Each structure stands twice: as structure tokens, then as C-alpha cells.
Amino acid sequence: xxxxxxxxxxxxxxxxxxxxxxxxxxxxxxxxxxxxxxxxxxxxxxxxxxxxxxxxxxxxxxxxxxxxxxxxxxxxxxxxxxxxxxxxxxxxxxxxxxxxxxxxxxxxxxxxxxxxxxxxxxxxxxxxxxxxxxxxxxxxxxxxxxxxxxxxxxxxxxxxxxxxxxxxxxxxxxxxxxxxxxxxxxxxxxxxxxxxxxxxxxxxxxxxxxxxxxxxxxxxxxxxxxxxxxxxxxxxxxxxxxxxxxxxxxxxxxxxxxxxxxxxxxxxxxxxxxx
Length: 275
Known about the structure:
Belongs to the TolB family. By secondary structure, the chain is mainly β. The protein has a single domain (about 5-270), classed as TolB, C-terminal domain (Neuraminidase), CATH 2.120.10.30.
């Protein structure tokens, strides 16, 4: 099985293969200059230059059990990662974007990073607190946690709109797993998709106009790897989504913020189907 790191043009639907590898890479996000992607593989992070594609390791110090929740700060100088080397459960750290010594931020575990506030002052993440899923933020300065939404349903995949006014996420609070958005303070939760698919990982574009996400077939439990899935796009204010691409993927395809800085493309990973 191979993994294919690709980009897709949202107007034409044209895909471009950046790198194909036998390694199980996941979750590409774009550097702020648009010159490279960052992916995870086998518990580590790598950059992939678009001009000279290759998996180049990023130094994460003693942390070697990273999952696929990672991403750059708005300024591009810091990298947030989720790792369980020290704690046994996912914990969020920040380190210099080019690699270096990680600094632990979340005091409680598990915590899975998903976004930065547009001003770079806070990190946004999924967590489990008191045995229930929720979405929280913590201050970059001291890790102080604010729980925004929490309860008996599943909450996951949060990502800010570029103006910081809304947080998109996915939840089954309305029944099936669908896309939602809420105000940045956790109020006014609104369901944004209600079709037959199981919808995960919404990512608002940098220009604020559209949201890309991953759609699983009806009845899918969780967000598994190895499924026939669709990359979809919908207006940021709601409306009918359109399918950009059907592919074999799932977990690892589109977990983290993945838009190019120009909002014309986003990155994803597709996998070869079992023979």
C-alpha cells in the first residue's frame, strides 16, 4: 500500500501529486509561505517541499509518539503537536516551526490539537473531561484551559474561521455525525450539514468563503482508515455542498487545517486500495 500526498484545485477539481511513498503518511498542512507541507509518519513529523519533494524530518526532541493532529501558528514560527510519549495519552506541545525543544501546554489529558486562534494567542482542541468529549482552548502563554462545549455527545475536529468569530466542528449531537459551528465563546451552536453522509473535519478557507471537509458513507462509525470517502466543499455561511473528489482514504486524509495560503487549493492524502 502506498500513500499519495496531493493537492486539489477547488475550481477545476484538478489534483496534483506532490509525493508518493510506501510510508503511511497522514494529515498534510501547508507552510505559511506556500512552499511546503507538513505531515506525520510513524510517530514523527516531516516537511515535504513542493519544489523538491522528500520526507525531511522535523526535530521534536524526545517526543516520538505523535498522532496526526499538528499545525503551524498564524505567524508560522511555532508548531503545535499532539503526542503521548510522556503522558501515555495525547497531550499538546508547542515547539519552533523548524524543530527544537517542545514545551508542554495542556495540563489535562487526553487533548488533541486542531487549530490556532487567528491572533495566535490560544490553541483549540478536542478533549475528554469528566469522561465526556468536549472542545476547549488553552492560552499559549500559560496553558490555562477554557472548556467551550462539553457533554454526552461526540465533539471533534474544531477549526476557527479566519476572523475568529466562529468555530466549526463535527458532532453527533443532532443524531448522525454532521458539521456544526458555534460562536468563539461556545454559544449558539448551529448544525451546518444534514445529509446522509457522516461528516468530519471541517476546515474554513483562509479567505473565509468556503469550508472543506471529509464525508464518509452513511452508517460509518467513527473516522476509520481504509474507506471510500469524499472530499467536499460548502459555502461558509451554509448551503449545498459539492463533492470535489471520491477516493480511498479516511483517517489521515484530512484531519488538520490543510488549505494553501491563497485559498485556491488544499492538501490531502489518498491511499492505494488493497489488492
